């Protein structure tokens, strides 16, 4: 048996089998990514300033390639713009694709000895634990690592959450006003039939988990009723918001957003008082033996810096309080903040829910919204 095949079997079978015991250790330590299976030599926290690391990155060559999970290329424009403004001489490439393609793409690149990215920034939280186990990540603690919420970082620095992403449902506040639904339960009432858009709950793991939370809260009767609402399903978690902004639908399900509504926008992202929604920390890690190590370090330091995190609705840092009267995301019991990482580790459960939603709503249709990027994008 080849080494690559052995690695693959370990990554897809042995590791997931051991994750049952690993999850117990994780829950007791309160630090995701740490247990006797997933430990590595701890690194010291970075002491250099951003400007000092910037100069080191330029001396290295000034290049940086990131594989980022997302629905379309422009979804990372805010990162590109802010990073280029702060570090104008870095040649930054961000390749956006569904996380479920980037993870196997990285595995394939490793197997063929042609790894492209310096940094992985993905929704597939469990993969970072597997990659650490396989020694494919560079343990590194950026400045401010000690301020990151405990369950949003690996204790050895193999990965850290870069930003908080939250999923809920959205409404056209201009069209609906005070009559807009305030809970997911109300969406199955029949009042909104034909006026709901949703990303597929059997395509994106985050949307799968959101629909799972809804189903567990309201029962299979709710799920059956939702199947009768003539929902317009599309690939890409951005599509429900597009349907609202373009006045195609009144309600969208399974999309990211902020409870702080942008000025002039008709789209309101609903933060329920007690009904379920979901949030997680999108993880980022430096690839072991990255071609552009200093630039990768610069990126991680900048991502969790006060200057970047202060601009987010919710921060991964405990020393930055949200504005607009919001609480830290981990203080919302209905955000299912610890539930999503556990769900992502249990691939059998993910698959069972995915196929359940296929029974109710049909198979996923359409090409991936980022397009087909091939084996080595960003090369």
TrEMBL record:
This is Bacterial extracellular solute-binding protein. The keyword Signal applies. Pfam families: SBP_bac_6. InterPro entries: TAT_signal. It comes from the Bacteria. It comes from Vibrio quintilis. Keywords: Signal. The lineage of its organism: Bacteria, Pseudomonadati, Pseudomonadota, Gammaproteobacteria, Vibrionales.
């Amino acid at each position: 048996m080849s080494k690559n095949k052995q690695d693959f079997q370990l990554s897809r079978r042995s590791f997931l089998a051991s994750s049952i015991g690993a999850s117990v250790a994780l829950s007791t330590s309160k630090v995701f990514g740490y247990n006797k299976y997933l430990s590595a030599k701890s690194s010291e926290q970075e002491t250099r300033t951003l400007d000092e690391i910037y100069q080191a990155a330029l001396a290295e060559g000034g290049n940086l390639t990131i594989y980022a999970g997302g629905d379309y290329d422009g979804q990372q424009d805010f990162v590109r713009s802010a990073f280029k403004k702060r570090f104008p001489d870095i040649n930054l490439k961000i390749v956006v694709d569904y996380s479920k393609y980037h993870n196997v793409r990285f595995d394939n690149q490793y197997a063929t000895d042609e790894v492209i990215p310096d940094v992985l920034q993905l929704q597939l939280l469990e993969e970072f634990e597997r990659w650490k186990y396989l020694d494919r990540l560079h343990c590194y603690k950026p400045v401010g690592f000690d301020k990151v919420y405990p369950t949003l970082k690996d204790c050895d620095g193999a990965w850290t959450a870069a930003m908080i992403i939250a999923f809920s449902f959205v409404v056209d506040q201009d069209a609906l006003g005070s009559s807009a639904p305030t809970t997911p339960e109300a969406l199955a009432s029949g009042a909104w039939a034909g006026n709901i858009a949703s990303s597929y709950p059997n395509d994106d793991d985050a949307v799968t988990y959101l629909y799972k939370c809804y189903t567990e809260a309201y029962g299979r009767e709710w799920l059956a009723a939702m199947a009768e609402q003539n929902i317009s399903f599309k690939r890409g978690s951005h599509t429900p918001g597009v349907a609202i902004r373009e006045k195609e639908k009144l309600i969208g399900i399974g999309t990211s957003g902020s409870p702080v509504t942008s000025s002039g926008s008709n789209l309101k992202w609903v933060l329920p008082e007690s009904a379920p929604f979901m949030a997680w920390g999108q993880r980022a890690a430096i690839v072991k033996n990255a071609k552009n190590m200093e630039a990768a370090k610069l990126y991680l330091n900048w991502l969790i810096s006060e200057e970047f995190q202060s601009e987010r609705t919710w921060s991964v840092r405990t020393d930055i309080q949200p504005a607009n009267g919001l609480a830290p995301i981990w203080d919302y019991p209905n955000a299912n903040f610890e539930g999503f990482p556990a769900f992502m580790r249990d691939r059998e459960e993910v698959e069972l829910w995915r196929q359940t939603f296929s029974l109710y709503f049909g198979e996923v249709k359409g090409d991936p919204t980022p397009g087909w990027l091939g084996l080595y994008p960003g090369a």
